[in-house]
Amino acid sequence: MTNEDFELDMSELSSAEEFLEYFGIEYERGIVQVNRLHILQRFHDYLAQADEMPESADAQWALHADLLKAAYADFVSSDAATEKVFRVFRMNEPKQVAVPLSDLMEQVPHAPSV
C-alpha cells in the first residue's frame, strides 16, 4: 500500500463502522450505535496526541488501527458521560446566583425603596 492509497482510503471512510471494518477491528453494534461520535472523536484526539506519524503507509495503518482499537475499547468498558469526550460533558454545572431586589432597584431611576 502506498501513502496515497492509504490517504485515499481514509478520505472515503465516513462512519464509525466503516473505520472499524477497514482496520479489521471486531466490534459490538450496540456499543457503536450508542457511542459512534464519541469513538470517532476519541480516535481523532488520540491521533492528535501521536508524537510522530510514521513514514510508511503500512506503519501508518498499524498506528491508526491501534489508536482506533483503543478509542473503541474506552467505550466498551465505560460510557460517554464518564469519558467526557465532548466539551459539553466537561462543562461545570450551572451556578445559581442570587441578586437582592434592593440592588436591582438601585439601578432604576425613581424606583421606590424596598
Automatic annotation (TrEMBL):
| Pfam families linked to this entry | NifW
> Alphabetically, which GO biological process terms does the record hold?
nitrogen fixation
Organism's domain of life?
A: Bacteria
* Record keywords: Nitrogen fixation
Asked if Glycosyltransferase is a keyword of the record, the answer is no
Keyword flag Hydrolase: no
* HAMAP family, alphabetized: NifW
**Protein function:** May protect the nitrogenase Fe-Mo protein from oxidative damage.
Please give the family membership noted in the entry: Belongs to the NifW family.
Q: How does it assemble?
A: Homotrimer; associates with NifD.
Q: What is this protein called?
A: Nitrogenase-stabilizing/protective protein NifW
State the organism of origin: Thiorhodococcus minor
Its ancestry begins with: Bacteria, Pseudomonadati, Pseudomonadota, Gammaproteobacteria, Chromatiales
